Amino acid sequence: MSNEPGDGIQLEYGLDEKPPLSKSVLLGLQHVAVMIVPATAVAYIVAGGVGLSGADTAYIVQMVLLFSGLATIVQAYTVGPVGAKLPIVMGTSFTFLGAMTTIGADFGMAAVFGAILVTGFTVEGLIGWQFNRIKPFFPPLVTGLVVVIIGLYLIPTGMDYAAGGTAAQEAGEFGALHHIGLAALVLAIAVGLNMLTRGITRLLSILVAITVGYVAAVAVDLVDFSPIGAAAWIAVPSPIRFGFEFEPIAILVFAFLFLVSAMETVGDMSGVTAAEGRNPDTREFRGALFTDGLLSSLGSVFATFPVTSFSQNVGIITFTGVMSRHVVGISGVILAVLGLSPKIGAIVTTIPSAVFGGATLLMVGMVAASGFRLIVLHTELDRRNMVIVAVSLGLGLGIATTPEAISGLPNAAQTFFGQPVILTALSALILNTFVPGEQSPLFDAAAAEDGAGPDPEPATPSSGSD
């Protein structure tokens, strides 16, 4: 399937198309390969910061994989009103990392999981339920800017992986030539195969690049196989492993962060549907947000961290032209199986950070590019809209690069305004709403009413919304 010119990118497989099973499995593995290390890294970092035992750490990693898989399956196929029927890969976001580490160290993990239980579906469920009313406030200009900032502020994370990640920092090898060389190898192979080849080789360019990078890492003795031997073959989830406590401060912080998560999901969904040259519809928005909130709250019962859409995988869709939700559904099945078998998951997590760094840099760059594309397709870049873009990205990137700039604010305000996504989104939302323009929900509506007379055409320019 391919789109009409100007409607979106050339798609090899559309939303409801099913590639052959063998190809679908490989494409699904490619999605898993890109997200599994960053998703599980959150669990490892929080566990280390809080001081959890090896057994507790392994269990949380297992649950992160299991619920990432379940949430991905629900997004692809839906359960009642829950799920978007879109190719959205779910995982644990770095958005929650700082709060989980701090609250876990100060109040214990029971307070972390208690806050997730209360705020997950309460915040995102409410947003999803009422999204039809707030949808006019999120036109392509706003959602496109959210997609752009998600990609841009993740670029330092990709560079961190490319330089060797946390393990390299601890070993004093951060930025060493062998790490940079591995990342460059993966990046060069992925770009080369995607740009210069056709067919299955192009579609699996990222997976091939990661595989080659992994083999090269083994050859130069950069892979530690010890986690494989230490992991069990099968582990069964156990509910309320850490208990629940309900600390008001923790609940307030997580309520803010789930608002950030909702905005990220709205942006990621827009990045996905941009491949078809459109914005998500109300049902898709509502179903995706319900999945974020419900699966996060349910997962807290089994000691997993919040699940949300994974931006890196949005880039895969744009990069490969494979939008099939059935491929992503297979990714969810793979993740769920990995979550039930820690030994299999341990094999994947032996891949060095530098190998993923090359792929991550490419993916987050594609996310930012898809956001720019969404804006350009549906927004006239006149003076008004250029100012909104400038202010929103300026504030978002400013806080991402200089978070200490708001160190004088109260702690709760630092947590809220210290998030690049939420600062960009709020700036774009406020300016777009209150400055007259065709995408403003206030002034666009007024223009439509004024144009209800004999010649309505000039009075209501297209806002680009479906």
UniProtKB/TrEMBL annotation:
Signal peptide: none annotated. Residues 445-454 have a biased composition (Low complexity). It is found in: Cell membrane. It is a multi-pass membrane protein. Residues 445-466 are annotated as: Disordered. The chain crosses the membrane at residues 25-47, 59-79, 86-105, 136-156, 176-196, 203-220, 240-260, 327-348, 354-375, 387-406, 412-435. GO terms for cellular component: plasma membrane. One of its GO terms (molecular function) is xanthine transmembrane transporter activity. It holds the Pfam family Xan_ur_permease. Keywords: Cell membrane, Membrane, Transmembrane, Transmembrane helix, Transport. InterPro entries: NCS2 (IPR006043), Xan_ur_permease (IPR006042). Belongs to the nucleobase:cation symporter-2 (NCS2) (TC 2.A.40) family. NCBIfam families: ncs2 (TIGR00801), NCS2_1 (NF037981). This is Uracil-xanthine permease.
